[in-house]
Design goal:
Strand order of the largest sheet: 4-3-2-5-6-9-7
CATH architecture of the largest domain: 3-Layer(aba) Sandwich
Structural class: alpha/beta
Shape: elongated
Number of strands: 9
Strand content: 15-25%
CATH class of the largest domain: Alpha Beta
Helix content: 40-55%
Distance between the termini: 53 Å
Number of domains: 2
Largest sheet: 7 strands, mixed
Number of helices: 13
CATH superfamily of the largest domain: Vaccinia Virus protein VP39
């Protein structure tokens, strides 16, 4: 690229603007060209793609995305980073820089892919939006532990509501690991690039992803209890009718524990509770 390597680009911005990553916003700036190039390759970007980047920071990934995609929408919460992006990259017609909070704004219309080193504290929010979207795909960098939870097997310590939600709605692939040295400053955790392709089967669409998400949120806090007791606790917590919940569930599921239930069994549970939860 004409601007030189990413580490040099960030060093130049640091000298010019006195950039200091803000811990309160979880800012860790990606400087590893190999990782970013792998993300772009995994996303199969082309001139027909409109890409969303969440939390672009000073634009280390953004400047690669605008070269690979037809259009980029970058949503940034930090006003200082927004100003830097506009000064450094804002003269491009194929880049829209939005000052705002993704948690409030969600996925803009006409975006068909997400490629982003997302702020880790909103990983769950981003994935929840992806699984309910009609995106072609999302390639995101997350904590390694979060990636492990997305791909875990029933009965393991990492298996839970995230695993079920993702496995029932997306094709998921861990593209590569990302060491702490790939960021400035280095985080205390390892990371991973994950590719999500929303692909919910008709059965999931009939139940509704919102219902599936609500059931997972309802029973997995009690993952080690029997489903019978998990439902009782959920009913008590949210003021639901305990007898109605228990009466709607197939009896063969009640003695299972959420941590051992397969995604398909959780889908069966969601289907049984759909009318009760309206």
């Amino acid at each position: 690229m004409s601007r030189g390597g990413t580490a040099e680009y960030l060093a130049r911005l640091s000298r010019r603007y006195g950039i200091k990553p803000r811990k309160s916003l979880g800012q860790h700036f990606m400087i590893d060209d190999d990782v970013m190039d792998a993300m772009i390759e995994a996303a199969e970007l082309g001139p027909d793609d409109t890409v969303l980047e969440i939390g672009p920071g000073p634009g280390t990934l953004t400047r690669k995305l605008v070269e690979a995609a037809g259009r980029v929408v970058a949503i940034e919460l930090d006003p200082e980073m927004v100003e830097i992006l506009r000064r450094e990259l804002g003269d491009r017609d194929d880049l829209e820089i939005v000052h705002g909070d993704f948690v409030e704004l969600g996925i803009p219309e006409n975006v068909n892919k997400i490629v982003s080193n997302i702020p880790y504290q909103i990983s769950s929010v981003v994935v929840s939006e992806v699984v309910k979207s009609d995106l072609d795909l999302a390639v995101i960098t997350v904590q390694r532990e979060f990636a492990d939870r997305m791909t875990a097997e029933p009965g393991t310590k990492d298996y839970g509501r995230l695993t079920v939600l993702v496995s029932l709605t997306c094709d998921v692939e861990v593209v590569r690991g990302v060491p702490p040295r790939s960021f400035v400053p280095p985080p205390r955790v390892s990371s991973a690039v994950v590719k999500l392709v929303p692909n919910p089967p008709e059965e999931v669409l009939e139940v509704g992803v919102d219902t599936l998400e609500r059931v997972c949120a309802g029973v997995f806090p009690y993952r080690r209890k029997t489903l019978r007791n998990a439902l009782r606790n959920w009913a008590s917590r949210e003021g639901l009718d305990e007898d109605e919940l228990l009466g709607a569930v197939p009896p063969d599921l009640l003695d299972k524990r959420p941590m051992h239930m397969t995604p398909e069994e959780v889908l069966e549970l969601s289907k049984a509770l759909k009318d009760v939860l309206r």
